[in-house]
Amino acid sequence: xxxxxxxxxxxxxxxxxxxxxxxxxxxxxxxxxxxxxxxxxxxxxxxxxxxxxxxxxxxxxxxxxxxxxxxxxxxxxxxxxxxxxxxxxxxxxxxxxxxxxxxxxxxxxxxxxxxxxxxxxxxxxxxxxxxxxxxxxxxxxxxxxxxxxxxxxxxxxxxxxxxxxxxxxxxxxxxxxxxxxxxxxxxxxxxxxxxxxxxxxxxxxxxxxxxxxxxxxxxxxxxxxxxxxxxxxxxxxxxxxxxxxxxxxxxxxxxxxxxxxxxxxxxxxxxxxxxxxxxxxxxxxxxx
Length: 288
What we know:
Structural class: alpha/beta
Keywords: Oxidoreductase
Distance between the termini: 35 Å
Number of helices: 12
Largest sheet: 7 strands, parallel
Protein name: Aldo/keto reductase
Radius of gyration: 19 Å
Domain NADP-dependent oxidoreductase: 23-283
Strand order of the largest sheet: 3-4-5-8-9-10-11
Helix content: 40-55%
């Protein structure tokens, strides 16, 4: 078996070269944080994800203004060994309008990191991602602040989200980038160049919206492959992601245990070369 084939079939990835996680993770964004019974259901989903072997859970300050972080802590703390909960900062709510917007000012980033530490009940965020680059704040100030927090021991590794290849190159002159989280799925490959850059550098790529909302099951090609494999269209698209690049770490989200179990079962799905070729062509048709 070739080295690349071994990498593509691996079920784990080492973020930053030293942090092992299962490649198929869980995105917590969709978990309701309201009082019972919705909150109880969310806690059950989070706990079930860990029972099923998930070691990478993604959240953010933006998700409920930290409420999602608090929910995960309530559900999972004290955290089992090997579990990585990664969060994101850099989006804040305006005190004047109440609207959310990009805010990468050093004081805001520092405050949100401290809040995340408190809400998640940890002393260090093993992976902290900048939710978006704030165009109103110099990139050096944003990443310099995170680098300082890393030196202080509050952050282990630093990641970025929704960036271009040029921005990634610029960022790597300031910090060591451990992960990139961009929108990406079998029908939406706008960020293929960013994925390629991550693969070349060994940087983890966490695709958000890894399943095209409502579209996968409507595409005849995906539905046909799903029928051939006795699987769901969602499972087919997740299996395609895992086989597309060795640095790919999908984080599908759901608020239902049955969907969670279905998503994680995609790891066992084996696409044939012919099936993969047919799926590879979908993005070309979508942009034609």
